[in-house]
Write a structure and sequence with these properties.
323 residues; alpha/beta; Metallo-beta-lactamase, Chain A; Arc Repressor Mutant, subunit A; binds zinc ion
Length: 323
């Protein structure tokens, strides 16, 4: 018992600096708990227009960073959101309340950020049992996102967001979600990759508005831009070493998962429900809500596998045509 308590205390006191400088005026505010869901990193642009990109790090991390740089949370001018997800819009409503800053997002994100009900629709959990699991998880880990938000405006894909010295260049990169947007920081050498997050888990596309084909294209487009630095929303450090290799490794997850799915179907797990129980995409199902996401992601693989004539569905059962 004592050991567990000490561990908890150690975890609470983050053993890494809260923020690091990416370049003058640009700071990465690291999420608590190694920036793992439901935390996420936040970018602070300490410029003429004091701007946050996302607001998913715990308010303590954001406020202490602002204080370290000579500001107060009340000084914030603007929050730019990368997509509607709860771990990214996070505390935007809270910071808007205390600073009266404007909140901007992609036009496709607007309804999902503003309305809890639309967010649930974008996520796509409609069966009542799954919905109650998801609401329990939100209540336990993201209680602050259950209200509606105010969005003051939207940014355009073709127009940089001017912060003063720093220009944020929107790179609409759908797939993870339909509204998912990466940002170039004063050019395209340094890119905020958001949830092309380069984590060990691999790509996540468990919402109805996620699209597997778009996700692959988005990763390839980032590779083609040949950035020198990629900033993930869920890794503590920006990736500079072997970035292209890491993006290719991340892209390879789709094919790896296809292969595993085909193997398991051939071995007799011939429905999405059976495949989800293994599970294939999550290493394990830590909470019943995740089973829905596992099934949604598997559905997307099956759809593409059957389009490529690798799998057929007959009487609700899957069959491998060619492996
Ligand atoms: Zn996300």
């Amino acid at each position: 018992m004592r050991v567990i308590c000490q561990k908890t205390i150690r975890k609470a006191m983050a053993d890494y600096p809260t923020h690091i400088e990416i370049e003058p005026r640009v700071h990465l505010i690291r999420g608590a708990n190694d920036a793992r869901f439901p935390e996420a990193n936040t970018l602070l642009i300490d410029d003429e227009i004091l701007t946050l990109v996302d607001a998913g790090s715990s308010p303590d991390q954001v406020s202490s960073t602002l204080r370290d740089l000579g500001h107060k949370p009340e000084d914030l001018d603007r929050i730019v959101l990368t997509h509607y997800h709860a771990d990214h819009k996070g505390y935007a409503a809270y910071f808007r309340r205390i600073s009266n800053c404007e909140v901007l997002c992609h036009p496709l994100a607007k309804n999902g950020v503003e309305s809890f009900k639309v967010m649930m629709k974008f996520i796509g959990i409609d069966n009542p049992e799954a919905k109650s699991h998801w609401l329990n998880l939100l209540q336990a880990r993201l209680p602050h996102v259950q209200n509606d938000y105010i969005v003051d405006g939207t940014f355009r894909d073709d127009k940089p967001i001017d912060c003063g010295e720093i220009q944020l260049i929107p790179l609409h990169s759908p797939g993870h979600t339909h509204d998912h947007t990466c940002f170039g920081i004063n050019g395209l050498e340094k890119i905020l990759l958001v949830d092309i997050d380069l984590t060990e888990f691999g790509p996540w596309y468990g919402n109805v508005v996620s699209d597997l084909g778009d996700f692959k294209k988005a990763i390839q487009q980032i590779i083609d831009l040949q950035p020198k630095m990629g900033i993930s929303s869920h890794l503590l450090d920006p990736v500079t070493k072997d970035l292209e290799e890491q993006l290719r490794w991340y892209l390879a997850f789709f094919q790896k998962r296809d292969k595993e799915i085909l193997q398991h179907i051939a071995a007799g797990s011939d429905t999405v429900k059976e495949l989800a129980k293994i599970p294939i995409i999550y290493p394990r199902i830590p909470h019943p809500a995740y089973l829905v996401f596992e099934e949604l992601m598997l559905d997307k693989h099956i759809e593409l596998l059957s389009k490529s004539n690798l799998v057929i569905v007959e009487d609700g059962h899957l069959q491998v045509l060619r492996a």
